[in-house]
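haha ok so turns out i had the wrong file open the whole time. this is the CORRECT one, sorry everyone. sequence first:
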Amino acid sequence: MLIPDVVIVSLASALSPPLPPMAELTSTEIRRELARFSMRVTLPGRSFRAGEPIPLSCAFENHSVEETTIWSRGFWANHLVTVTDEDDREPFLTPWGRERREAFAPFGPWSKNVRFRIGPGRSMVRAGEGSALVDLARMYVLGAGRYAVRVVYHETQEPAMRVESAPVLFEVR
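then structure:
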């Protein structure tokens, strides 16, 4: 079943002092973080034919009463897209997919970083619906089966933030 709206955990943001590692967070702190910021990951359907494009849409949503910052050096430098099968194994990456994976560099360099401010109650699309920017079928060798996709946004430039999406389920037939 496709999960259209996902809730994430933000480990640090500009909205409050940095939080301790997840293992040290209390349930109250986790709820505060979950309520403040989320990433919504969606696919245009639940089932796809083998070889058919599978475009992913990704948007950040600010649920707080304060502005927050997202950094960009292009999508792939601070976004990690991972697909796993029913056995929690990652399928083979295509050459194009390997290039995107190798571009993931949340620890810099930051010389080309661009600041995007997201106001209270606002959202920002990072990979639009129908966009060829994130095509799971181009990124992975996907045979018939059931899969889950997760997206991690990780940036260490201040304000540092790591956001992990819940899995979005889909199948290839």
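The longest helix spans residues 27-36.
again sry for the mixup
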